[in-house]
């Protein structure tokens, strides 16, 4: 697996912090990275003021001691997410890598969907003495955050991550970094339209902001592309005793729509989409020959048989952008205008769409 420059440089900083001073050749050996690549990364980090080079060795700048690199004054950032081991793993990883590169540290709190524990988890993070917060609180289906008045009264700066506050709410003045999921749905449906499909099914959950945005994006995209809008197939939410029977029922509903002429489906999310190819075969439908399939999230889609074309929100970039925005907010305070940033997903083309119809 290819390691990005950001990941390499994060690892370099971690080793330098742990070693104090280390020779470049030893650094390359320890990380298992060619010396020429390490020297290029070291030069870039030195230009950014994050390390110092002296006679073939590297160390932290003298004024950082054992703490942060330049531009990151040893801050501790609390991060609240609704779950791990799926979509938010990459969001957390992006934030953590950006924090390490800036000399900061992330501590994690988890408030599972449907537990109503957001505020309690944030209180625990605040008790840990965090300097700022990255927040993905739970939401009711629909626009904005439900029951989130307390977000407008936080004692430290905060950035919403993959969430937006309702326009008139107390949290509306918080910074936010989100994926533009409506654009992601448009990419998927445009690809299927280019392949000749004039109607596309949507099978989607309804429990998160992403699910709401996917559904809204579907309605907008079929209108924009001149496609036939079909009734949305509801996918059971994972917190509602989701079972293998639910996946079989989903496959049966798609097969029924296929008998009415549908030959393409967008499924939110990977966990359900990856179950479908073998289940659809029990109904005489083969992916992609009989049913083109696109997944939304791109967490597990490449591991399917066949590998699934998938909408890939920029999960890691969202985490990194949110962390860096929070550090800028901590430095600038009210002098920095409120930023509400949307990053565009991409479409990963794999085998599950097939040839033009």
Automatic annotation (TrEMBL):
Alphabetized, the UniProt keywords read: DNA-binding, Transcription, Transcription regulation
* InterPro entries on file: DeoR_HTH, LacI/GalR-like_sensor, Peripla_BP_I, WH-like_DNA-bd_sf, WH_DNA-bd_sf
According to the record, the signal peptide region is none
Q: In its UniProt entry, what is this protein called? A: Substrate-binding domain-containing protein
A molecular function (GO) held by this record is: DNA-binding transcription factor activity
Q: Which SMART domains match?
A: HTH_DEOR (SM00420)
PROSITE patterns in the record, alphabetically?
Answer: HTH_DEOR_2
UniProt domain HTH deoR-type: residue ranges: 5-60
